[in-house]
Amino acid sequence: MSSHCPTCDGALPxxxxxxxxxxxxxxAWPAVGAVAVGTFVMVxxxxxxxxxxxxxxxxxxxxxxxxxxxxxxxxxxxxxxxPALSVAAGRLDRRxxxxxxxxxxxxxxxxxxxxxxxxxxLAARLMLGAAVGGFWTFAPGVAGQMVPPAAxxxxxxxxxxxxxxxxxxxxxxGSLLGSLAGWRFAFAASAALTLAVLLAQWRLLPALPPxxxxxxxxxxxxxxxxxxxxxxxxxxxxxxxxxxxxxYLKPLLLQVFALSAAQVxxxxxxYGAAGFAGNFxxxxxxxxxARAGMMATTALLALALLASTxxxxxxxxxxxxxxxxxxxxxxxxxxxxxxxxxxxxDAPEAGQAMLVTAFQVAIASGATLGGRVVDGSGVPGxxxxxxxxxxxxxxxATMLGRGRAGAAAVSxx
Length: 413
Fold this sequence. Notes:
The protein has 413 residues and is an all-alpha fold. The chain has 15 helices and no strands.
């Protein structure tokens, strides 16, 4: 640990609120749980159309290609909404902000369930994008505000676990509901769960006043300081590399490892379960050193992607690759968020807003770049590209992330 930089290691920074350690810490965990379930519903809703795309396309009389806008457009809106909402929220109590975002998710699900045409469905999905961008900007800081500093890494892991659980249970459950009762019922069920989350948050979340309002100029703070800038560079490279390869995980398993459809389904479920384990593993590492968490994540992810081209074929080789890959990407949200919060303790929401934008831009660009490589040199080429980009992220974390955290407080307006 660094003796001269108290925020480089140890507990996550508590600068998001004037009262970082609530007087009744045990009572805070149900509130953290309510935010975590909100994460689950949010991510499940975001990716639900993937399993229902052809059904929705037929029901709203559009092509499959046009229906794909339901997945891509929320990401674009989320990339813009994160920074915009961090500024627009000003000094508003973060409890009210979280309730408003959950209410927006509820409205999106209801509108999607009742959509008479594709334009209405797309409007619902744009509302979802705004909720996703805002949620990822505020939720990590809110979780940290509600527990003592020593428990903040655990609270962050719990909130981010919703991502892994939605991968294992949420998205497949949505697809199952759609196949049994129709895609509208799947969105209606998601709306019902969102309503339950909203009521739980209304009852459990305490007042969460921010330490200060975020100004537009503050959004440039992560770019001006060395360590937050290193986080953004590493995250963009890592997420680009992952999605350049992950987009073609199923073809990899079918074509390169020569697996059956049933084996592929089993390994995709195992991937999600491994991600759930990785989420909590990185929480243990980040609690000791956030930079070490990022380095461990990028190293494991790069090795998994490289191994996918060298492991040969067969179920055992594929299982080892998929499990390592799943654990590694399960570590990504916690590693990135933990390192950003540690590197920018005086402006955590500004850091999170820019991190949301970095994630969304990297997802879109990585998938596009991977597609071009697959068209030119096949699926193994996309895996090698992904490994190279993630290795570059590891180099950035190693060489650029050594400076002190920018702990100097930004003057209040």
